[in-house]
Design goal:
This protein is mainly alpha-helical. The protein is built from four helices and no strands.
């Protein structure tokens, strides 16, 4: 399978698209992202530090975007991005051992 996100088309590591879509899968009732990612063939040789760095960037993207006004015709996009950000943040905390601020 090949995934092409036309507005953001680029070449990247094989596991990038998997990592990027897993917060959406999880927020819609799917399995935890680590469970899917860690057992997926494209992720078997992924560098752990690189995965954590990309996950941090993806998390930041979702959390930051949700603070913007909704684009015309997409009134629920920001709530969707917030839900993605929450799922990604939970995964990031699991990977890093970071906890919530008191």
């Amino acid at each position: 399978m090949v995934v092409v996100d036309w507005p953001w088309a680029c070449l990247s590591t094989r596991w990038f698209d998997l990592l990027h879509m897993l917060p959406s899968v999880t927020m819609q009732g799917g399995p935890p992202p680590a469970e899917v990612f860690d057992g997926h063939p494209v992720a078997t040789k992924a560098d752990g530090d690189a995965v954590t760095a990309v996950l941090a960037a993806v998390t930041g993207f979702f959390v930051q975007r949700r603070s913007l006004p909704p684009p015309p015709g997409l009134p629920t996009l920001r709530a969707f991005q917030l839900a993605q950000g929450r799922a990604a943040l939970a995964w990031l905390r699991q990977r890093t051992g970071w906890r919530r601020a008191p």
